[in-house]
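Just curious. Protein, please.
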Amino acid sequence: MTTIGQLMTRNLSFISEDASIQDAAKHMHTKRIGSLLVKKESEFLGIVTETDVVQAVAEQPEAVARLTVQEVMSRPIITIDRMMAPHYARDLMADRKIRHLGVTEEGKIIGIVSVRDLLAYFKTVSKELEEDV
């Protein structure tokens, strides 16, 4: 059985809570990723996503230059245990209307799984099913 731990990204990208949303957007653009974990010292406080940045720009265009990550991030980070099945992650994302989940092991975030990761997985599974027919 495939688990979320097999699909997740282990290389965590993060940003400081007091960074600007412009810095967050540049970081995501450069790394070609859709989210950054927000970190203060050794603790993850939340997650800032492309959606959070777009929403902030649309709602507060005059304040973009001074908005910080902490002001626009989503919290708490919705998580899933690394041993859970991809179907559970898909349902959790759909129910919460989110695109990223923190992946945990013994309560500690060790990775992140995105809707893109799940789409790639389900595409592979679908092809395998078609081949079996």
